[in-house]
Amino acid sequence: MSLVLGLDSSTQSLSAVILDTDQGIVVAGDSVNFGQDLPDYGQPHGYDESGLRGEIHANPLMWVEALDLLLGRMKGAGVDFSKIEAVSGSGQQHGSVYLRSCFDEKLASLSASSDLKSQLAGCLARQSSPIWMDSSTSGECSEIAAAVGGNQIVCSKSGSVAVARFTGPQIRKFFKTESDAYAETGVIHLVSSFFASILAGKSVAIDHGDGAGMNLMNLAEKEWDRDLVNATADGLLEKLPPCALSSTKSGPVSSYFVEKYGFSPICETIIWSGDNPCSLIGMGAASPGKVVISLGTSDTLFAAMPEPRTDPNGFGHVFGNPAGGYMSLICFKNGSLAREAVKKKFDLDWSAFEKEALSATPIGNDGLMMLPFYEPEITPAIDTGGPVFSKEGDHSPEATVRAVMEGQFLNMRAHSGWLGVDPERIYITGGASENDGIAQMIANVFGVPVDRLDVPGSATIGAAMRAAHGTGTDLAELESKFSQPKEGRTIAPEVGAKEIYDGMIDSFQAFIHQQ
Ligand code: ADP
Ligand code: XUL
Predict the structure, then answer these.
(1) Which amino acids bring their CB within 6 angstroms of ligand 1?
(2) CATH number reported for the structural domain that contains residue 430 in this entry
(3) What's residue 421's pLDDT?
(4) Does the pTM of the predicted model rise above 0.90?
(5) Residue 124 domain boundaries
(6) Residues 118, 178: contact at Cβ < 8 Å?
(7) Ligand 1, residues 94, 297, 348, 408: which to mutate, most atoms within 8 A of Cβ?
């Protein structure tokens, strides 16, 4: 038996899965929901909802407390951590944690008789962490782009134009607005490398997958880009951990976890990656050929790439593929955020959302289109101040549900053409992928069958697979065991649907451009 642990710190929860890689089975799993399980932080969806001007931060101590809560809960339920051979993880991308120089020392001397939160609180140079939903740094993006000679150069160096939620512009804002706290910062971690450091008991590297989401890493050299770093903030290079291959081992797990939760002192830690790169692995899409849509808080569309190709509109991104090479990623912020807003408005449950609404309305919604941008959207970069309909009036709950979904997936189709990939199948994952209505909508809009994986939580599974891969297990063997489509759950496109959407795509694009 060969057991590995994968952890996943996403926007709303921290999850764990244990895989038996010999038998190809999931042995255990659990999840802590930040809002429900840690209500004292007042962040019901995993972030502070009172931020102004697009600022969205989360409390890093909530993440840290969640780790103790999750492992304690699993141990209490009988999980024997002493058998785990390796651990790795996945983090929501772009979010950053600002730590004093004492962080490394503190990690090396954590006491198992106390908890992580009380011991690490004093290490924070900034009490909150900007996360991927933050859209408050457009000024900083322009400044960084201007300093290096334009956004084309930022894009060719880092794989993306300067992007508000990316870590570099966020660091620049902190440097400008809280210069004293910036000066006190010894190291800046991503959510992924922060957790990886806690597990390893020392500050560890940022992997090429998540590092590419910072506007700071040179994609070709896979090192920090001096021009981008210098354009971002003074003295930044000394505050960044090194960049490293995603399969890098970071030594045995910290004694804190050995003493408190019974991990083996020789359990190996592998550095973490971002949630989208981990999902690419979990979905069995590490080699080019599969297109994956992840339906989480945001929706993302990604695929492995043999060579980096960039989005001419500047909305899409290129990241490092944890298995080597590159991956594309397009993020649609108004994913579950928009679906939940409609569900809440009409007081629906998910099954009403999926069944009644779609069966009561025709494909194409009698010409009613919607731009489902409840929050400022990332792809395309537009702030419509809320959803916009193509026709005025009070729309029924059924027509609104269809409109939000058709709007989301027409928008996805319209903005993924630059990948130059004509998918033959689409693989879906994430919280909303269980919803058959949403799966059917994707099959219809793209005109191809849609599959789901046999195991839930592709980022968490991908993190566990990376732990096994980092300690020598062949990735293709892991994929054959854990990344197989669920039998009998393929959703085929309805006859004639794609043709209706083919006819709508130009008017949908024109509708966006009118805003
Ligand atoms: P994240 O990783 O961003 O935290 P998840 O992948 O865990 O997100 O997905 C969480 C989201 O999934 C929730 O916001 C919820 O809106 C959505 N969700 C959960 N179940 C369903 C369902 N049956 N139908 C549609 N959406 C769902
Ligand atoms: C990707 C992005 C989100 C986050 C949170 O660029 O911003 O997908 O990784 O899931």
Answers:
(1) 10-13, 296-297, 336, 339-340, 350, 430-432, 434-435
(2) 3.30.420.40
(3) 82
(4) yes
(5) 3-277
(6) no
(7) 297
